[in-house]
Design a protein that fits this description.
Layout: E1 3-20, E2 25-38, E3 43-49, H1 59-74, H2 82-92, H3 97-115, H4 119-122, E4 129-131, E5 134-136, H5 141-153, E6 158-162, H6 167-181, E7 186-190, H7 197-209, E8 214-218, H8 226-233, E9 240-242, H9 249-258, E10 263-266, H10 268-271, H11 274-286, E11 290-293, H12 300-313, E12 332-334, E13 337-339, E14 342-344, E15 353-356, E16 363-364
Parallel strand pairs: 5-6, 6-7, 7-8, 8-9, 9-10, 10-11
Antiparallel strand pairs: 1-2, 1-16, 2-3, 4-14, 12-15, 13-14
Length: 365
Amino acid sequence: MTISEVRTHRVSAPLHTPFVTALRRTTTVDTLVVELVDSDGRSGFGEAPQVWQVTGASVAGARACVRELLGPQLIGRDPDDLVARCAEVQRAVVGNEAAKAAVDVALHDLAARRLGVPLVRLLGGTRLRVPTDVTLAAGDAVDLAAAARQRQADGFGVLKLKVGTDASTDLDRVRAVRAAVGPGVRIRLDANQGWTPREAVRVIRGIEDAGLDVELVEQPVARWDLDGLAWVSDRVSVPILADEAVFGVRDLVEVIRRRAADLVNVKLAKCGGLHPARTLLELATAHGLGTVVGSMMESQVGIGAAASLVAAYGTTAVPDLDAAWWLAWSPVQGGIRYEGATVVLPDAPGLGISGLAEAKVQARG
C-alpha cells in the first residue's frame, strides 16, 4: 500500500470570543489542513496553523511547502514505514515547522487508521481523557475578573491569564482575577514576550509579595533573549516556562545549558510534529525540566494530535489545549470534544476524524 494523494484544505473558522495577547488579536482560526490518502482510500489529517507573530507560518506558505515539496516526496511511498517517512519530512526543508507538523501528524493519523487503533495507542498510551487549562484573553482588570468567574463556572480549574500588554497594570489584573475566583483555582500567566527582564522581575516579585499564588509565568521576555530569561529565572521564585524561546532541540539545549527556565512548552506547530515533540519531551525530562504541551490557535485536528501526545507521554503541568474550545463551530467531522476542562479523545482509529465540514472549508486543492 502506498500514499496515493496529498490534499490541502484552507480553513478559516470564527471564534466565539476574540483572542487577544501581547502579540496579536484574532477573531478566527486560519489554518491549512493536510490530508494524506492511501491507495485503499483511507485518509490521515494534519494541520498547519497560521500564526504570523509567533512562528511566522502562513497558510499560503505552508500550502506551497506541502504542494511543491513535501507532498510529491510522499506520493508512492509506504505510509506504514512511519519513522522513515517522518524523518524524510524533517530533512526535506529548512524551517517550515508548521507545514512539517501537518504532514507528520497526517502520517501518524494514517498509520493509526491503517492499524485500526486510536492515535494515542499508536503513541504507546491508552488514556482518552486529558485535562486542559483555559486562556483569559488580555483585557482590563474588570473584564478579566468577569471572564475568570465565567470560566470557573464552566468547570475550568486552571486559568491562563494573558499579560504583557502593560507592565504597570499587570499586577492589578492578576489581583483582580485572584479575587474573582478565590484560592481554589490555579492561575498561570503568559506574557508572550511582552516584558523587559526588569519589568518581568518587578511584576513577578510584586505578585509574590502580594501572595497571589501564581503557578508559573510563561515567556516573560523576548524569545531571542535567553540571557534575559535566565536573569529573570534566577531572581524570582515563581517557575518560568519557556515557550517562544524553544522551537527545536538546539533551542532546548541552550535553555538547559543556561538554566534559563524551569519548564518548556512543546507545541507541534513550533517543533515540526509528533516525532520531534517526543524528542523534546524526553530531553526536557532527562534534564529535570518540567513540561507542558501547548497549542497555537488551531482546530480539532491539531488539538487531537497534541492531546494524544499528552495522553501517551504525560506532562508535569496541566497542558494548554483549549484552542479548539474557542471555535464557534468545528471545521471537521468527528475528532476531539470538550467536557468542561477535559479534552475527550474519540475511541476511533487515528484522530477519529471522518472528514471536513466541506460547506465551512474556505478552499480546497
